[in-house]
Design brief:
mainly alpha; Cytochrome Bc1 Complex, Chain D, domain 2
Length: 166
Amino acid sequence: MKKLLMLLFAAILFAACGGGGQDNAGETPKTDDAATKTDDATTKTENGNPSYDPNRGEGKYTKVEVGATLDAAMADKGEKVFGVKCGSCHKLSDEKLVGPGWKGVTSRHTPEWIMNFVTNTDEMLNKDPKAQAQLEICLVRMPNQNLSDDEARSLYEFMRKNDGIK
């Protein structure tokens, strides 16, 4: 009786794992067409994830209006934000503390990039090549500071003031 049960078990195991004698190794599995369709504007990488185009404007800020002269009141508000949320990791010089120094930041990055980075840090660190390069230098992920739109814009104006815009 034990031999019969073992034989039956072996037959079931063989049938479950056997694949019916067809070699499917080189075939692409068939899937529902609706599930595999992609938006034509989104290209895919080798691993199937959407690619990231830093010029496509995926962030919230696609156009930041910046005046030729500094908005001093806004820069003062931004200085307060810096003191509370940024100053423990960033210096106003070009010296790195935990994060990079801020001197010249507005000439290295567009206003849109900076605004998207300070308000959507995690997404930028996951997708943006410039942010990832900075992470490789600093070795510490910038925490999301949950900045409001007004705080972020004031902070950008303070960055401009720090860079000598008058």
